[in-house]
Amino acid sequence: xxxxxxxLTSFSQPRYAEVPTFMRTPLASDWSSVDIGLIxxxxxxxxxxxxxxxxxxxxxxxxxxLTRAIHHVTxxxxxxxxxxxxxxxxxxxxxxxxxxxxxxxxDFYARIREANVVPLSAGGDHTVSLPIxxxxxxxxxxxxxxxxDAHTDTWDEFxxxxxxxxxxxxxxxxxxxxxxxxxxQIGIRGPQxxxxxxxxxxxxxxxxxxxxxxxxxxxxxxxxxxRRTVGSGRTYLTFDIDSLDPxxxxxxxxxxxxxxxxxxxxxxxxxxxxxxxIGGDLVExxxxxxxxxxxxxxxxxxxxxxxxxxxxxxxxxxxx
Length: 320
What we know:
Layout: H1 9-12, E1 36-41, H2 56-64, H3 78-81, E2 84-89, H4 100-114, E3 118-123, H5 129-137, E4 143-148, H6 168-174, E5 178-188, H7 196-204, E6 207-210, H8 211-230, E7 235-240, H9 262-270, E8 277-283, H10 294-316
Parallel strand pairs: 1-2, 1-3, 3-8, 4-5, 4-7, 5-6, 7-8
């Protein structure tokens, strides 16, 4: 087991002290000593409704200063399992250059893959999951996907663009990054102007659990269905904060009533422990629309839950 990666004196300081990093981890420029990297992707250039998720990483860092080390249910301490650090934000030089920003995100995550770092990312709008997958998967075998969201994000295009926050997982399937038959979308709900996204997900072989089915079957059966769908292969986890009910997450671009409570979301994530996760993200936190930082607080707490999953998966991998 590696030595504790984090300067644990940060956990002994007041949580309002020092420069905020994700979960009070050290800020690292040398990735060679990092197993799991926490990364901000401050980009929301492809939203269809309310902007603001570009500010998500900064506020998630701020609220994640409330994080403590040991999980109260699983007793997992991710900071003892793996060397964890904040790797900063993806930096942009082509922010307004067509698809240039997406290419820069993909290039960043290709370097993450080459450094053998497992990424946990904070968006940003959901478009960012596509270039993250491009960088992580590259020309490798398509991965399974657990996608928790109010929306399928499998439209073909919007206003003439095939690259926006409603299309990333259709593109990911087309590009051979994600195996649709090892993909489950959980919590889908809300009226649409057309059924294109729902139809594509279902017709391509994705397992779609609308929120009504989740409610009828319960969280435990939903967990079992997710585990059955992705199996034992490599899997990516993406969590859109709008999967939560707006009562728990008003600060997001496309809120949909009738969603998860934070307690249900935590139970769902905890039930995924032991899967072979190669990375994960939490997206669509939009602080300008938040109330009392409750969305960012929920997002930071759920990032910790995902971190525990990634650390457990990292621990289970054979050492070289």
